[in-house]
Amino acid sequence: MCGIVGYVGPQRAQDVVIDGLRRLEYRGYDSAGVAVVHQGELAVAKRSGKLANLEKELADHPLPPAHTGIGHTRWATHGPPNDANAHPHTGGARRVALVHNGIIENFRELRARIEADDHAFLSETDTEIAAHLVELQVQSGVDLPVAMQRVCQQLDGAFTLVAVDAEDPDRVVAARRNSPLVVGLGDGENFLGSDVAAFIEHTREALELGQDQIVTITRDDVTVTDFWGRPVEAKRFHVDWDLSAAEKDGHDWFMRKEIFEQPRAVADSLIGRRTTAGLLALDEMRLADEEIRDLDKIIIIACGTSFYAGMVAKYAIEHWTRTPVEVELASEFRYRDPIVDQTTLVVAISQSGETADTLQAIRHAKSQRARVLAICNTNGSSIPRESDAVIYTHAGPEIGVASTKGFLTQLVACYLLALYVAQVKGTRYGDEIDEIMVQLEAMPDHIATVLEQAESVYELARAHVGTRSVLFLGRHAGYPVALEGALKLKELAYLHAEGFAAGELKHGPIALIEDGLPVLCVVPPRGRDQLHGKMISGIQEVRARGALTICLAEEGDRKIEPYADHLIRLPQVPVLLQPLVAIVPLQLFACELATALGHDVDQPRNLAKSVTVE
Ligand code: M6R
Question: Where is the active site (predicted)?
Fold first, then answer.
């Protein structure tokens, strides 16, 4: 939610900042802006709409050739997405420019306080007050880092702030509370970004910042303190992917590229998980065997697609470990007084590692003495930092707003966690775990086989351009797949799409069925006879009422043929692993239908990639 960039170094700041914003645009695209410091003055350009609008403006009216700059791409919270509300904001004297990600909750009180002193505000944002306050501080004679400390002490809420002072041209100062910020360490230049994509083109060395910290960058130095000016040691890390991972690589959309990367992402997420003796070993799993054996309940918390990964995990963990699992939306968790104690393991799933709802839920769980394990794709992000243990997925950067490879790799991490708990608790024999690992290790090839059918799925999608509504049905582990398929279609094609547990249909939703309504059905493998038979009955029922059925069923499943208007074949895999292959055609379907409708697949309306406000 909002992308932030800062730069000091020998390069032209405008170019470095705009390149960084381009890579962060997935975080918000309501407006974009840049400010540079040149010869004791600020130069600011900002435009509503996508970054392209700002780039056009800068092509006609470039900013001066400065070497210090900040930039912002916005997901609007306070005030509509117009030019006035675009960041950077400046103080009244235009000495300080500042960008912000998050929400300053007490901005009204603070604003009222200085409005009384004749301070005019030009925007409706909660951000502008911070620019005024920092400017008042530097005008009083303190330097920018101290000004930032003093202002942060007054702010409530979540914020990353990045500021420059026209009279202090060679440094950028940033503050972080509950919103993401990382530092890129260059040679004679340094960078700030909401995530490493902002500077990956220039450096793969980075610093992770903690809560309530202030960082000051100059060309040759990076200083980190807390909000009270006390020095802090920041953790350095190396980014294990490069620029090519953040490029479209010949695809029309990042999302399509990321769908096709899934065999590789799943394989990478499985690498190095077994010892030479064949035992599962999860490196970053900092929970002692004792703690795992003592667990009597697991609660999974997550949002959106990650929540659906958690729903699949419940089937696997309960089946393999006989440990009860609850799956809860992170945004609901702490508001219902959940029963959590030191024998509960809370598993927080998040691709970005920055989702505010999930982060708050983790804090609540920890306050109740639960142990927290994060499943996360983003090194240096807040959720793994605040958790007791972590399993990193190895999807590489996911830039399309709609999660795809993030989901598949989360599933892999959940399976690994389930098997690890089974190994430690002894609820499965070693050879059973081995067999499942072998099946998992075969999944990249199976996913690749599904991707070979992309053209026929695209054709089907294009044939549905006039459709207003689509239903998705599944059972067992196929139910979360149905929900995820519907979410993909909602967020990309802006269509009414709903996922149902097939058995639930006759309790109400079947009333929605009308002539020609497309219903995508995730058919369980035949190995689970009862499940398979019941699913076929459900499909018959909707078809009898005029639905057009598009069935995803395993190779060799002949029983489905009479009830499928269209058939997409899936490889034969065990029911618990089927989500890894079944979701792929649904991703392709949503991507292609949205493309055919003329939508921006990577940047769907009203959304942002990581939701850093509650
Ligand atoms: O980064 P997270 O996994 O915590 O994000 C959770 C959701 O915001 C995310 O999955 C969202 O639903 C995606 N747009 C789904 O495609």
Answer: 2, 609
Question: What's the pTM value of the predicted model, to 2 decimals?
Answer: 0.84
Identify whether 602 is part of a domain.
no
Edge-to-edge strand ranges of the sheet holding 469-474: 496-501, 469-474, 518-522, 548-554, 566-570
Cβ distance 104 to 151 under 8 Å?
no
**Distance of CA 601 from the midpoint of ligand 1 (Å):** 15
Q: Kindly state the greatest CA–CA separation across the chain.
A: 80
| Number of domains forming the structure of the chain | 3
**Does one domain contain both 400 and 278?**
yes
CA dihedral 218, 222, 226, 231 (to 10 degrees): -120
- 376 closest CA partner among 317, 344, 417, 427: 417
- The pLDDT, as a whole number, for residue 249 is 82
- What is the rounded distance in angstroms from the CA atom of residue 3 to the CA atom of residue 610? 10
Q: What whole-number distance in Å separates Cα of residue 109 and Cα of residue 107?
A: 6
User: Are residues 157 and 176 located together in one domain of the fold?
Assistant: yes
For 396-411, the pLDDT digits (tens) are 999 999 999 999 999 9
| CB 381 less than 6 A from any atom of ligand 1 | no
The residue-averaged pLDDT of 135-140 equals 97
**pLDDT tens per residue across span 312-365:** 999 999 999 999 999 999 999 988 888 999 999 999 999 999 999 999 999 999
Tell me: pLDDT of 152 over 90. Answer: yes
CATH of the domain at 504: 3.40.50.10490
Q: How does 182-208 read in b/e, with b if 16+ C-beta sit within 10 Å?
A: bbbbbeebbbbbbbbbbbbbbbbbbbb
User: Looking at ligand 1, which residue's alpha carbon is closest to its atom 4?
Assistant: 350
Q: What is the pLDDT of residue 213?
A: 96
Mutate to test the pocket of ligand 1, among 354, 403, 414 (most ligand atoms within 8 A of CB): 403
Q: How far is the CA of 541 from the centre of ligand 1 (A)?
A: 33
Whole-angstrom distance, CA of residue 333 vs CA of residue 356: 13
Q: What is the pLDDT of residues 504-536, one digit of tens each?
A: 988 998 999 999 999 999 999 998 668 999 999
Distance 183 CA to ligand 1 centre (A): 24
Residue type, 335: Y
